[in-house]
Amino acid sequence: MVGSAAVLLNLLPTTAIFHRHNPNLTARYFPSSSRIRSISRLRGVISCSASLEDGLEQIPSGGVSSAVEEIIDMENKLLQEPATEIPEDNGKSAVYDFLYPDKELLPDDKEMSLFDHLDELRDRLFISVLAVGAGIAGCFTFSKELILFLEAPVSTQGVRFLQLSPGEFFFTSLKVSGYCGLLLGIPVILYEIIAFVLPGLTKNERKFLGPIVLGSSILFYVGIAFSYMVLTPAALTFFVNYAEGAVESLWSIDQYFEFVLVLMFSTGLSFQVPVVQLLLGQSGLVSGDQMLSIWRYVVVGAVVVAAVLTPSTDPLTQLLLAGPLLGLYMGGAWTVKLSGH
C-alpha cells in the first residue's frame, strides 16, 4: 500500500514534470488558465501524505492502477493542448522612441550635468532678453510712427482717439514698443532655442528642424499680417457702423491698442496649428487619417478657440478667425497624410 502511494506521489504532475515532458515550452509560452485549473484538480487527488495511507486502504482491488491510468490520461491530454503563445513586446512605442532614442542616432550626444544645462540655459536666456530689449529700444524711438501705422485701419472712418488720463499715451507707446520689440526679437529667440535643443536631436529630427522653424516663422508673420489687413478692419468697421447715428466714436488710445495688439499676436499664434500637426505626425504619435477622422470636433474646436482668442465679442471676428484655423488644420492633416506619417 505504501509503495502504491509513493507511485501516486511520483506521478503527480508538477511544474517541473510538465516542462520536462514538453521541452518546447520556453519563456515565450505559458500555461493557459484551463491547464492551471486541470493541474489544480490533479493536485487535489491526494490531499496530504499523512492521510494518504488511510484513504488507500479503502480503495478496492485494482483501484490504485485505475487511478494511476486516469492521472496519466489527464496529463497526456494537457500535453496535447496547443500552447498559448504571448507575442513579443519589447516595451517600445512611438512615445518611447521619441523620448529615448538610440545613442547611434544622436551624433552630438555628450554627457552634461544638470548645472551645465542650467548655465547654458541662463546664457541663452540672457542673449534672448538682450535681443528683445534692443528691439524695444529701437521701436520706442519710432513709437509715434508705429502708432499712426496701427491707427490706419480706422483712421478713415472718422474715429478719434483720446488720452483719458495723464501719461496714457506714454504708457501706450511703451506697450506698442514692447510688442514690436518682441516681434523683432523672435528670430533670435528661435535661434537660441534651436541651439539649446540641437545636441539632443536625432539625425531624422534634424532633417525636418529647418523646415519646421522656417514654416513656423512664416506662418506667424502671415497670421499677424492677416489680422492687420482682414480681422482688425472687419471688427473695427463692425463696431463703427453699429454705433453710427447713435454715438460719436471717441476711443481710448490705450484700450484700442490693447484690442489690436492682442488680436494680432493671438492670430499669429493660432496659425501655428500646421506646425504642431507636422511635429505630431513626424514623431509618430498621430497619423494623418486620425487627424482627418475628427474633423467634426475640429469645427467646433475652431469656433471655440476663435471665441477665446479674439478680444471682441462680435461673431464676425470669431468666424473670420475660425475659418482660417479650420483651413490650416485640414491642410496640415493632408500634409501629414501625404508625407506618409
UniProtKB/TrEMBL annotation:
Q: Where are the transmembrane segments?
A: 176-198, 218-239, 259-280, 292-310, 316-336
Report if keyword Magnesium is assigned: no
| Localization in the cell | Membrane
Per the record, a Pfam family?
Answer: TatC
Any one biological process term the GO annotation gives: intracellular protein transmembrane transport
Q: Which GO terms describe its cellular component?
A: TAT protein transport complex
The record's annotation in InterPro entries points to:
Sec-indep_translocase_CS, TatC
- What are the UniProt keywords, alphabetically? Membrane, Transmembrane, Transmembrane helix
Q: What GO MF annotations does this protein's record show?
A: proton motive force dependent protein transmembrane transporter activity
Main location group: membrane
The record describes its membrane topology as: Multi-pass membrane protein
- Superkingdom is Eukaryota
Which family does the record claim for this protein?
Belongs to the TatC family.
Report the PANTHER family cross-referenced here.
SEC-INDEPENDENT PROTEIN TRANSLOCASE PROTEIN TATC, SEC-INDEPENDENT PROTEIN TRANSLOCASE PROTEIN TATC, CHLOROPLASTIC-RELATED
Q: What is this protein called?
A: Putative Sec-independent protein translocase protein tatC
Write down the species: Zostera marina
